[in-house]
Amino acid sequence: MIKLKILIVVALIGLAGCSSINDDIEIISDVDPKVDFIGYETYAWMGSAVVAFDEQGQWEPPGFDADKEVKFYIDRELRAREMSEDSYNPDMLVTYVAGVDMDHIEEIDTNDSNLPSLANVPKAALVVVFFDAQTGQPIWYGAAEGDVQEDKTVMETKERLDYAVSKIMDEFPK
């Protein structure tokens, strides 16, 4: 029994040391300080939110619809905050945009030189924006940026999108 407990503890420590496929994702957000979010209970989708089309299939697995997934995760996060969708008389309008820069160049340090090198490190970003439905003014935005991880499975891609949306929405005012 003691050996089993030790084995479990060692396994948990080992897992804690493993890096996540989401370690590269960074989140930022900003809010209009004049806005009192207490009165916001409903939302509607504004226009057509989009994820950049991946014509070469480098970052979006074949048959995967990133647009539907992002919308699903945002809807889920808003419902968890007891907000409801109201297309006729919403308090807020929500939209998002996602894009990928496959040609992003980044400075990297190499062990064999004191000088940094340049490397192609494709980046992706997701921005979620809320507007006051009455005034049309932006009241909050959140964004996630991370490295493009090519050749991921559908499940890994969903996990990264879910993580990004969840972390973005963690920043949304309560």
Give a description of the structure:
By secondary structure, the protein is α/β, with parallel strands linked by helices. It has a single domain, classed as Double Stranded RNA Binding Domain (2-Layer Sandwich). Helix content is 28%, strand content 30%. It contains 3 helices and 9 strands, in the order H-E-E-E-H-E-E-E-E-E-E-H. The strands form 2 sheets. Strands 1, 2, 3, 4, 5, 8 and 9 form a 7-stranded mixed beta sheet that branches. A two-stranded antiparallel ribbon has the order 6-7. A hairpin with an 8-residue loop joins strand 6 (105-108) and strand 7 (117-120). Helix 2 (66-80) packs parallel to helix 3. Residues 1-19 have low confidence and may be disordered.
Give the tags.
Double Stranded RNA Binding Domain, seven-stranded mixed β-sheet, alpha/beta, elongated, 174 residues
The succession of helices and strands, N to C, reads HEEEHEEEEEEH
Q: List unreliable stretches of 5+ residues.
A: 1-19
What is the SS-derived class? Answer: alpha/beta
- Percent helix range: 25-40%
Count the E strands. 9
Q: How much of the residues is beta strand, in percent?
A: 25-35%
Gap between N and C termini: 45 Å
Number of helices: 3
The total tally of domains equals 1
